Amino acid sequence: MPEPSPHFADDAKRLRILESFEADSLEDDPELMAMVSFAAKLCNVPVAQVTLVEELRQRFLAGEGLEERDTPREVSFCAHAMQTPDLMEVRDAEQDTRFADNALVTGAPGVRFYAGQPLISDEGAPLGALCVVDVAAHADGLNEFQREGLAVLAQAVMRRLNARREQIFATREIKEREERLRQVIEGVPQIAWSADAEGNFDYFNARWKQLIGTQPPKVANDWAQYVHPDDTEDAFRELNEAFEKGEEFEAEFRMLHGDGKYRWVLSLGVPVTEAVGEPLRWFGTVTDIDDVKQALEERDM
Fold first, then answer.
1. Where are the beta strands (DSSP E) in 69-200?
2. Which of 20, 58, 108, 269 could form a disulfide with 284 if both were Cys (CB 3.0 to 4.6 A apart)?
């Protein structure tokens, strides 16, 4: 695990890193709860906690042995432990000048023994600690096996926190990419659409409303009202065959526009899967080719 970096002596910088984990979603997380439960058993103590040290409080993200969910930061043992490169151990808090007057020692719950393994982000920001606590002093402290066990468990806690943060970053990146793509699609001159494997249309860009002037269709059969009666049979045969076989399709037909006129369009559709075993999705365009069609007919004549 990285050591605390002097760069994060500025608490504002440290807190920005802490906030990037968005830890609310990990409160009482089953994996973290299993780790603290094992830590308590490993060290033979009644209390074990995963703590995060925020601006004004020490927050108990997951733990056992305490009903409280936080304590003021000024009485936090973990605020000291997170600044150390290794385990911080207090065998008898009443005899330790740093903590003898601490409200958690002089009052409830009456802390006597504390051991905290620091939780440090990959950037070197101190976040909090994996700690074990007892109301009885431990004159001999933890043995080597227990110390090593806490270090391993703290690494597991950080893996869980890092996994959460990576998920947040990935989700944010996907949303940003989708928004950029949406802006591009909204700007193209064609009608663009997407549909699920059953042919339920779930997206049309703004061009549909601009050109056709109505609410977009929700299923394939809803297209019939916009297709010229002479073209309906061929267009729908190609469309239905493509959806059944999961193959690309291409069809030309006359489509009713908002001005009440039929214009020739080229409709393209492509099936896509994002991963093996996932259902198909369809993406397609409808392009106005009426001017080209008219020009070709005039040339032929």
1. 70-72, 88-90, 113-120, 126-134, 191-196
2. 269
